[in-house]
Amino acid sequence: MIADHSTKSTVSIDATKAKKIWIHCNSCFEHYVNEKTVIFLLACQHVICEKCVTASLGRIPGDAPTYVCPICQKMVRGRQVNNALPSNLKGMFHPAPWHDGLPHDLIDSFQRANFKNLEKFILKKEKEEQKLDKDLLLARGVCQKQYLEQHRLRRMLRELKFRVRKISQQVKIKKRKLAQSRRAQRSISVSAKKAEKQITKHSLPEVKSMPITSFVHHNNYSFDL
């Protein structure tokens, strides 16, 4: 049993499957133990799934199909990886070829190449995951800044709305006072006109001026009276 300590939960893998975990499609890295697709061993020593390989029928009925390897682009023969593989091909996937006297140098080379390929893929995915983590932290920081900025803008908007209401009320009060002042001025003007009319109506008649008769001055005579 294998435990995955990268997460809080423990993932158990059957020991038999654990020995075959390295068998994967060299193109899309789908694992054989997942049993989600058919895996082929090609004559070019590449392991490819049915989704990644291009198959062509044989020239005559009953002839084995040929495959175009997506890794080396060669046209080769291939066999499905399962228990029906011929022993010389099935031995390539033997978990301990030296125990059964198989040519383990060739088998080790084949398996080591697949292990190395899988390790590169895992390393690539780990780097991508690290980059995604950094991008996530950056995005989280940007979102937090935007949230704070939006909060500040909402607060400013509330303050501006309050000021607008306050100014509107002040304008209404000033308009009301101005209207009252105008009404008072009109009332005073009307009252003044009425008073002027009344004064004009009750004023004394104009007295015509009479001519004044003056003395006539003669030459000055000197005598005693």
Give a verbal description of the structure.
By secondary structure, the protein is of the alpha+beta class. Helices cover 48% and strands 8% of the residues. β4 (66-68) and β5 form a beta hairpin. The protein is rod-shaped, with a radius of gyration of 56 Å. 8% of the residues are buried. Residues 25-73 form the RING-type domain. Keywords: Meiosis, Metal-binding, Zinc, Zinc-finger.
Features:
metal-binding; disordered N terminus; 8% strand; alpha+beta; zinc; single chain; 225 residues; Zip3/RNF212-like
Largest sheet: 5 strands, antiparallel
Rounded radius of gyration (Å): 56 Å
How many helices? The count is 3
Please mark out the parts with pLDDT under 50 across 5 or more consecutive residues, or reply none: 1-11
User: What global shape is seen?
Assistant: rod-shaped
Counting helices, strands and paired strands, the structural category is alpha+beta
Assembly of the depicted chains? single chain
**Average pLDDT over all residues:** 84
Give, in order, the helices and strands: HEEEEEHH
Organism: Drosophila arizonae (Fruit fly)
Protein name: RING finger protein vilya
Pfam family, one: zf-RING_5
InterPro entries: Zip3/RNF212-like, Znf_RING, Znf_RING/FYVE/PHD, Znf_RING_CS
Quick synopsis:
By secondary structure, the protein is an alpha+beta fold. The chain is 48% helix and 8% strand.
Write the layout of secondary structure elements.
Blueprint: H1 15-18, E1 39-42, E2 47-49, E3 54-56, E4 66-68, E5 75-80, H2 87-90, H3 104-202
Antiparallel strand pairs: 1-2, 1-5, 3-4, 4-5
Organism: Drosophila arizonae (Fruit fly)
Protein name: RING finger protein vilya
Domain RING-type: 25-73
